[in-house]
Amino acid sequence: EDCSQVLEQVASLVDMFGESTDWKASTLLRIIQVSKDNQRDRMTEKLKFLLANPLCEDSDPATVLELNRVRIKLSSLLANIVEKGLKGKAAPVVVTALHVWCEGQFSHLGEEKVELVVDRVVTLGRQNLEHNQIVMNCLLAIQKLSIRNGKVCQLSEEFLAECAKSDDDCISQTATEVQLVLGSLTGSLNIPSTTQQDW
User: Is the dihedral of CA 132, 33, 105, 128 positive or negative?
Assistant: First the structure.
């Protein structure tokens, strides 16, 4: 309990005094490593907000360049941990989920083909079906990547269809919602009708 209070204080100091985006991001990542449960979720959201900062896009070019450099650096670090694991074990769930989120948000910065990124995201989703946090991030990354690409890859359609049939309500509902969003954009997804509504 004492540790979680210290971590909260450190996080607020980062917010108040952190000038460098790189320093803020690396400090928040370290806090995520040692925090647990709800606190870890809150710190992860703080890091995501820092990286996705929509207000920065209207800032001066140097700020945008620094933010993009930090995004690429963190994405690369997380990809390396997910690929190689930590101390002979698979990467922690929170790291894999954050990596997938970065893939959906920032893969365009590396100018890599969207199909390759989608392939990695779907592969990670299928390898981690027992971890809802990872699967949810995969579903949302697929949505983001498909919207950015302007089309839905067949691999994405298959994974979304599999997840829509999941026994986990949260996963199936999210997959169905992503199908609906992408279907409305492309008109290409075959979405099974769920339940009829009483009007």
Answer: negative
- Only one residue has tokens 């590396």, namely 110
Structure token digits, residue 153:
């890859």
Whether the CA torsion 148, 154, 155, 158 is positive or negative: it is: positive
Residue 196 pLDDT more than 80? no
Cα 135 from Cα 132, distance rounded (Å) = 5
**pTM of the predicted model over 0.85:** no
Q: Which of 17-21, 46-50, 142-146 has the highest mean pLDDT?
A: 142-146
Q: In angstroms, how far is the first alpha carbon of the chain from the final one?
A: 50
Residues 6+ apart with CB under 8 A from 27: 10, 14, 18
Q: Please, which residues have CB within 8 angstroms of residue 194's CB and are 6 or more apart in sequence?
A: 176
The Cα–Cα gap between 13 and 64 comes to: 23
At residue 159, the pLDDT reads 97
Q: Could you tell me which residue, 3 or 48, shows the higher pLDDT?
A: 48
Angle at 154 between CA 192 and CA 146, to 5 degrees: 90
